[in-house]
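name: query_chain
kind: protein
chains: 1
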Amino acid sequence: MASKRVAVIADPHFHDVYFGRSRAQEAPEFVRTLADTLASTRVFNESELAFRSVLDEIAARGIRLVVLAGDLTDDGQRANWRAVDALLQEYAQRYGMRFFATPGNHDQFAEDGCHLAKRFANADGSFDLVASNAATSKHARQNVVLEDMYCVGYADALDRNVSLGYFRTPGDVHWESPFGFDDALAGRWYEIAAGSDMPPLRITDASYLVEPVEGLWVLSLDANVYVAEAGVVSADRSGEGWNAVLASRPYLLDWVKDVADRARRLGKQLLTFSHYPIVDVVNGTHEPAFRFDHQEGGKKREMPNPEVMRAFAGAGIGAHFSGHWHVNNTGCFHEDGDFLVNVAVPSPVGFPGGFKVVTLTDGQLHIETVPLGALPLPPAIGARYQAERGTADDGDIPVHSYKEFLAFHLSKRVRGKYLSRDWPEGFAILAAEFSLADVHQFANVPAALDYADLARSVNREPLAANLPDLSFEAVLIDFHRLIMAGDPVLAGVGPERLAAYAALAAAYENGDWPAGSVQSDLAKFAGMMQRTLESAPAMNFVIDTAAKTVRATPIAAAPSAARQVEPQTP
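structure:
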């Protein structure tokens, strides 16, 4: 069977900085604040720049089939849906691209949508609060009500001008959903409890299987689950991911098994994706070794539990592509002869930034990770950031390079949120006052060390000749860069640092210290760092579903989006 190439993009989170207004004006007026950007897992205002760069690279490679693994929009706002719809239409018409999406947790809210309010920066450093209904903020210069800020429900999110795969398209070889061959939304739903003495609520299940070209089956799984109270949907369960799906919608797994079995019997190449991972894609480093609550917006974020991994490994799909976590990484599951690989696709709006290209051959998926190219930060947006921060921080914000801005964004997240949220309280002391050499030395101290007495109880030794001169804060930032990038080169962590981190893990490997001591906490951290360094290939690799293996492949030169691309008529 002939090989087929598919591009996979996850979490572009498209935000229109003009919000549907005229682009002829000098500067965009819907620029999200820097404060909100640094508090988020993603950047906002650069999303169109990054998304266009990805689509241009895909066009330059001659790829026409594009998977969108959820969170296509910033937060499902009407204005952002119209803008991203127009963008995808542009590339569909110019290059003959065909798009296949799955709903993310930021694309819609259940059936009826929900009200939203966001802060937008002004040129003088102040901000306005823009809401879809009357909302107040005592800190805003003014409050603005725009219906376009409203987050849509399922019907509005799925029924776009550009085809996203949710409905049958002329020319498709095959199309179906878990409910049959009728693509009308009226028959594609499941029920959730609505509260005591209330009838259940129907929620759309947008899952589908499509054969856009002969021999390729694209399986999109809608993994959103909602919670209702007093007859009204009150929250989503996105933090639980597939752990919530299998508990509430067991029919979906039965359908996946049936699709995988038919694909094998009919000789179809199967590409499966959803928004959430079905295998742990950070190699156990998400486990609660310390105080890992992993709260985002008040929601606990979970990796799939063993039951989910076993269920999908037994379903026979072999490989699955996901987004949501904004990481570039690979999770592998082997048990009792079953085999499953989850390819976590990086987001264009988070460090390190990029997408995946998949070449499907008989029994194999060849994966290439494509980093974002050099992109300038839009000057108008950089000016808003500078105005918000003030002249005192002018040298702190990299306003000329998007790549550097993503690295800056991650480092600020580590310092401002992850350090206090994810790590022991004492790590703040280590990050502020101690070095890599210091924490390496602590492994040689037999007595348990206490954070409060650390400075007095430890003799600071000269820097070891084989250790780089790094603060412990820099080590923590490198850990998060490695988690996000899944590859040392993509993370920007060089051989000298990698060797030092391996040495740190070895120093703590066999120690035995009381729980809560400095050394005990550092031993857990060093073990997590080692597991990160030992993760499955995440850059370029081959998944062999027949041999049940994953192996790294050399990085080859690829076409550049900087060259001219000839349009193709669909």
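note: The radius of gyration is 24 Å.
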